[in-house]
Design goal:
binds nicotinamide-adenine-dinucleotide, about 15% strand, about 300 residues, alpha/beta, eight-stranded mixed beta sheet
Length: about 300
């Protein structure tokens, strides 16, 4: 049973989730928010990105309904989602989740704007994969309300969320975010220390980078690497295909951020990853990465 009136609402009865960034992750987070019964306002600076998100969310909800995984009327769920380019539209939101590109300066700029827009009791979560949350929180005027909620891709499918309170996060804000992720979004929540990569990416990213390195070094062909890890280790998807799903630009930014924190060579981005990003081969989202998605 979902809490449609959350116990943690701070006297704010407004059940509106704000999502910033309508890319790979933002669109998924918006979808699970709307499926959980909340209204969602999703903001992106790029109108085409908002249009892509609208189509992708409608598609995904339609698939979930027709496969029997979701008992809902597609139009009713879609009617709960508003697409906008104005950050100020998030003013009524008690919970805001940021999912813009993995760039410290860009994220800090957004959080500084939110300082002026949101109620001081609102909780702000960053979906950063690799930037320490304290770095982001310290740049805002209410660091106690900012924490990490790290979702996994594709968000409507993957059950896990890592919750990362920074040294500056109020315990109450962390508890409210956990209740929201669990009861409204239907996620399983684990708590993680505020270190770049948290739990999952600190372990996963060296594995993915080593698959790219193996390809770069000619250890095996692309399909043999992916088939090897699927057939030999029971992975649901090969590592190169997973990199394409994550987005190769995101992989590069995450690797750089993890390396700068840990100075561990297992986080060094292979040249082949950089060349793919230079070429604009960003994975599924651009139609080409290690695989070709143009068809
Ligand atoms: N891709 C993944 O598998 C994955 C998984 C977990 C976490 N993350 C994290 O989620 C965040 C988003 O990643 P993504 O893969 O969805 O990126 P993406 O490139 O697919 O989408 C980012 C979106 O943010 C928009 N944007 C950029 N600056 C903005 C701003 N100032 N205001 C509003 N919108 C803005 C862009 O137009 C774009 O649509 C990153 O921090 C990333 O590390 C990604």
């Amino acid at each position: 049973m979902k809490f449609l009136v959350p116990a943690y609402s701070n006297g704010m009865s407004n059940q509106t989730l704000g999502v910033i960034g309508s890319g790979t992750m933002g669109m998924g987070i918006a979808e699970v928010g709307a499926r959980g019964g909340w209204s969602v306002i999703i903001v992106d600076t790029e109108q085409p990105a908002l249009e892509r998100a609208r189509a992708a969310i409608a598609n995904s909800i339609t698939r979930a309904v027709s496969s029997g995984k979701l008992d809902a009327v597609v139009e009713e769920v879609m009617a709960r989602v508003t697409f906008t380019q104005k950050l100020t539209d998030l003013a009524p939101c008690p919970v805001v989740i940021e999912a813009i590109r993995e760039d410290l300066a860009d994220k800090v700029a957004v959080f500084r704007e939110l300082d002026e827009i949101l109620d001081e009791n609102a909780v702000i979560a960053t979906n950063t994969s690799s930037i320490p949350v304290a770095k982001l929180a310290a740049a805002t005027s209410h660091p106690g309300r900012l924490l990490g909620l790290h979702f996994f891709n594709p968000v409507p499918v993957m059950k896990l969320v890592e919750l990362i309170p920074s040294l500056l996060t109020d315990l109450d804000a962390a508890d409210r975010a956990e209740a929201f992720a669990r009861d409204v979004l239907g996620k399983d929540v684990i708590r993680a220390k505020d270190q770049a990569g948290f739990v999952v990416n600190a372990i996963l990213v060296p594995y993915l980078l080593s698959a790219i390195r193996s390809l770069d070094n000619g250890v095996a062909f692309r399909d043999d690497i992916d088939d090897g890890l699927v057939g030999g280790c029971g992975m649901p998807m090969g590592p190169l295909r997973l990199c394409d799903l994550i987005g190769l630009d995101t992989m590069l930014l995450v690797a750089e951020s993890l390396y700068s924190e840990h100075l561990d060579p297992s986080f060094v981005a292979p040249a082949l990853l950089r060349r793919h990003v230079d070429a604009g081969w960003l994975g599924r989202k651009s139609g080409r990465g290690f695989y070709d998605y143009s068809a």
